Amino acid sequence: MCVPGMQSGSAQRRAQMWEAQQLAEQKAIQDAEAEKARQAMLAEEAARKNNIQTGNANIDSAFGGFNDAWFGSAKDRYSGAYLPEIGDQYTKALDQLKAALTGRGMLESTAGASAMADLERKAADARAKIGNDAQAFANNLRSSVESSRNNLYQQSAAAADPSAIARSATGEATTLANQGAATPSQPLGDLFSGFLSPFIQSASASQNSAGGVTKPRLGLPSGSAGAGGSSSIVK
């Protein structure tokens, strides 16, 4: 004989068990989906980091040639564009100075030796200035390279696109390499004409005075640097 109250209680328990089972199954499905999403996010992040690392490696490869030796060569190319001309100008200026001193009978004098020493100091100043300019040129190149490299690293982190970064790095590295290999275009100018002018004018005046025969004056021309040093000769 079945008792109605007992039957109702059993059915209720079965319903509760079924409901609990359904909830457990739903939770298991939700947990599985959440784990799947988490794993996908981890995989995506790992791929992004790998792309960034690959992009950075592409940058390092493209910029690998910009080392101390490269910057030293750029510096040497800069100074090499000017130093030979300084040497040529000095040689011609020395010949002119000697001719002017000879015309005034001063070539072997103390004043003449002082004038030639002043001319050599001017040449040394010019060479030193070119050396400083060459170092500044190399330093500016180094700053440009580092700035470009750092900007590319930032682009790599933002885009995580190694192929695009490789193209950008190659293009920028090529531009920088061309800048370092370029020959300076600014003319050197005439370094010694201002120094020589008083000597040449004085010698010419001596030759043209009173029939061209004048007793040599054994002193430096007015305004020369023999007694008071020399002014800057590189503009």
List keywords for this structure.
rod-shaped; 0% strand; 76% helix; 235 residues; mainly alpha
Number of helices: 6
Uncertain segments of ≥5 residues (pLDDT<50)?
210-235
Mean pLDDT: 85
Share of helix among residues?
A: over 70%
Radius of gyration: 42 Å
Question: Between the first and last Cα atoms, what is the distance in angstroms?
Answer: 123 Å
List SSEs in N-to-C order. Answer: HHHHHH
**Major β-sheet annotation:** none
Number of strands: 0
Measured by DSSP, the beta-strand proportion falls in under 5%
Shape: rod-shaped
Structural class: mainly alpha
Quick structural overview:
The chain has 235 residues and is mainly alpha-helical. It has helices spanning 4-62, 68-80, 83-103, 110-159, 162-181, 193-208. The protein is built from six helices and no strands.
Please characterize this protein's 3D structure.
With 235 residues, this protein is mainly alpha-helical. The protein contains six helices and no strands. The chain has helices at residues 4-62, 68-80, 83-103, 110-159, 162-181, 193-208. Helix 1 runs parallel beside helix 5 (162-181), helix 2 crosses helix 4 and helix 3 (83-103) packs antiparallel against helix 4. The longest helix is centred in the N-terminal third of the chain and has 59 residues, at 4-62. The radius of gyration is 42 Å and the shape is rod-shaped.
